[in-house]
Write a structure and sequence with these properties.
single chain, 455 residues, alpha/beta, seven-stranded mixed β-sheet, 14 helices, 48% helix, globular
C-alpha cells in the first residue's frame, strides 16, 4: 500500500516537472527574450481555416445569412473620404452648402425640411451610439455571445460548436487563468524587489524589462497575436504617444513592445495594489479624482514630464473612452496643448477571433475579463506612424483633428467629430448653440431677415 502511494506521488512529481519544463521553455523564456516560437501563428492559422471551411459549408450558409440579414450591413470603410455607409445614404454636403442651394435670396420656410430629414436619419441610424456596441461580424465565429441561436441550425454545426466550447472552457481557459495569476504575482513581486534598488541606470533597465516581460505574458494569457508595423517610428523618451482606444488591452499590447508612462486616475483595491507596485519602478502621471477635473494641473504635470527627455514617453488615449474599433471619435485637445512631439499609433483588432471592445456601460470589468479569457484569441495590428508636431498658427483642435485623421486612415476606420463622452452624457448645449448660430448666420447673411423678407 505504501509502495503504491509512493509510486503515485512519484508519478505526480514527474508530471508536475514536465509541465514546469514546458511552461518555462514554451512560455516564460520566449516572453523574457521576446521571441516567438510560431505557436500563436499556427493556432491562428488553424482558426482561420476552420472559419473559412465553416463559412463555405452549405449546412452553415443559413447561419451566415442570419447574421447578414439580422443585423445592419457591415460598414464599408472608405479610406478616401473616411465616411461610413450604412442603411442611410447621407449627403456629403454641409448644412451651408445644402441650404444655400435651396434659397432664392431670402429666408425660405422649406429650410425646415433639411432639419426634418437629418432628424429622421438620426432616428433610423445615428452614427454615434452604434460605435458603443460590438462590431458586427460578416460570419459566425462559433461564440454564443455573437448569436446564441445559430448552433441549432444543424446537428453538424452543433457538434462543432460544442467542441469549440470544450476547447475554450476546458483547455484554454484554465491555462490562461493560471498564466494570468502567475503574471500578476510576478509583476507585484518583481516591481517590489526592483523598487528597492537606488535610482540609476540599473534600476531603470530592470524596471523596463519587468514591465515588458509581464506585458508580453499578459498578451500570451489571451493567445494574443500582435503584428507591429514600422517599428522605426516607435515613441521616444520625452514624447507623447496617442492612440485610438478600444479596450484596456491597448495598454497591455503597446507595453509588450515598449515602455510607457501612463496618465490616469488613482484606484483602490486590487487595481490600486498593482498601481502602487508599478509606481515603485516607473514614473506614471497619476491623479486623485478631484485633481482630474483640474485641467490646468493635468497639463502642468504632463508638461513637466515631457520636459525631461530621460523619462519614458507618455501614453494617452485622447478619445477618453472605449470605441468599438470601427471609427475614431473626437480627440480631446488637452494632450495637444502641452507641446512636444506627438507619436501617433493606430490599433486595429480582428473581431473574428474575439471582441476586444469593452462596453463599460453594459459589462463590468470582471465580465469583460471572463469574455476575453474565453475567446478564441486576440489578434490585432499596430502601426507606429511618423512623429508629428504642431504647425505654426495651428491651434490644438486642428492639430488633434489632423492626428486623428492620420490614425483613422492607417487603421481603415471612419472619422467622427462627436465626443466619446456621449456614451454616458447628453449632447452639450454648446454644440446645439453652435449649429443654431451657423443657421442664423446663413439666414441673415444677405440681410433678408432684417429686411423682413420671407419666401
Amino acid at each position: 500500500m505504501e509502495e503504491n502511494t509512493e509510486g503515485h506521488g512519484l508519478a505526480e512529481g514527474k508530471i508536475l516537472l514536465i509541465w514546469t519544463i514546458l511552461f518555462v521553455a514554451l512560455v516564460l523564456l520566449p516572453s523574457v527574450f521576446r521571441v516567438s516560437l510560431g505557436i500563436s501563428h499556427f493556432y491562428v492559422k488553424i482558426l482561420i481555416t476552420m472559419f473559412e471551411k465553416l463559412h463555405e459549408c452549405p449546412k452553415t450558409e443559413w447561419a451566415t445569412l442570419q447574421i447578414e440579414e439580422g443585423v445592419k450591413k457591415q460598414k464599408a470603410m472608405a479610406l478616401e473620404n473616411l465616411i461610413s455607409t450604412g442603411i442611410i445614404q447621407r449627403e456629403k454636403t454641409s448644412m451651408e452648402e445644402e441650404l444655400a442651394g435651396q434659397r432664392r435670396g431670402c429666408f425660405n420656410l422649406a429650410d425646415v425640411m433639411y432639419f426634418f430629414k437629418k432628424g429622421c436619419e438620426a432616428v433610423a441610424e445615428d452614427e454615434v451610439t452604434q460605435r458603443f456596441s460590438s462590431e458586427e461580424l460578416v460570419s459566425w465565429n462559433l461564440l454564443s455571445r455573437t448569436n446564441a441561436n445559430l448552433h441549432h441550425v444543424s446537428w453538424q454545426l452543433t457538434v462543432v460548436w460544442v467542441i469549440g466550447i470544450l476547447i475554450r472552457y476546458c483547455l484554454l481557459m484554465p491555462f490562461r487563468i493560471c498564466l494570468a495569476l502567475f503574471t500578476i504575482l510576478l509583476l507585484i513581486s518583481a516591481t517590489t524587489v526592483v523598487g528597492q534598488f537606488p535610482n540609476g541606470r540599473v534600476k531603470y533597465c530592470l524596471a523596463n524589462q519587468v514591465q515588458m516581460i509581464c506585458a508580453t505574458l499578459g498578451v500570451r494569457c489571451l493567445s494574443g497575436l500582435v503584428h507591429f508595423h514600422n517599428r522605426e517610428n516607435r515613441p521616444q523618451e520625452g514624447g507623447i504617444c496617442v492612440a485610438n482606444h478600444t479596450s484596456p488591452l491597448d495598454v497591455l499590447i503597446l507595453a509588450s513592445d515598449g515602455c510607457y508612462s501612463l496618465v490616469g486616475q488613482t484606484h483602490g483595491g486590487f487595481l490600486g495594489l498593482i498601481q502602487k507596485s508599478c509606481m515603485q519602478t516607473t514614473q506614471h502621471v497619476l491623479f486623485e479624482r478631484s485633481e482630474m477635473k483640474d485641467r490646468h494641473l493635468v497639463r502642468k504635470k504632463i508638461r513637466e514630464h515631457i520636459a525631461d527627455k530621460a523619462k519614458l514617453p507618455i501614453l494617452i488615449f485622447p478619445e477618453g473612452t472605449c470605441i468599438n474599433n470601427t471609427s475614431v471619435m473626437m480627440f480631446k485637445k488637452g494632450s495637444f496643448e502641452v507641446g512636444g512631439t506627438i507619436h501617433p499609433v493606430a490599433i486595429k483588432y480582428d473581431p473574428r477571433f474575439g471582441d476586444a471592445f469593452w462596453n463599460s456601460t453594459k459589462h463590468s470589468m470582471m465580465t469583460y475579463i471572463f469574455n476575453m479569457l474565453s475567446s478564441w484569441a486576440i489578434v490585432c495590428n499596430v502601426w507606429y506612424l511618423p512623429p508629428m508636431v504642431k504647425e505654426e498658427e495651428e491651434d490644438a483642435v486642428h492639430f488633434a483633428n489632423r492626428v486623428k485623421a492620420v490614425i483613422a486612415a492607417r487603421a481603415g476606420m471612419s472619422v467622427l467629430p462627436w465626443d466619446g463622452g456621449l456614451k454616458r452624457k447628453k449632447v452639450k448645449e454648446s454644440f446645439k448653440e453652435e449649429q443654431q448660430k451657423k443657421y442664423y448666420q446663413l439666414a441673415i447673411g444677405n440681410g433678408s431677415v432684417g429686411n423682413g423678407n420671407v419666401c
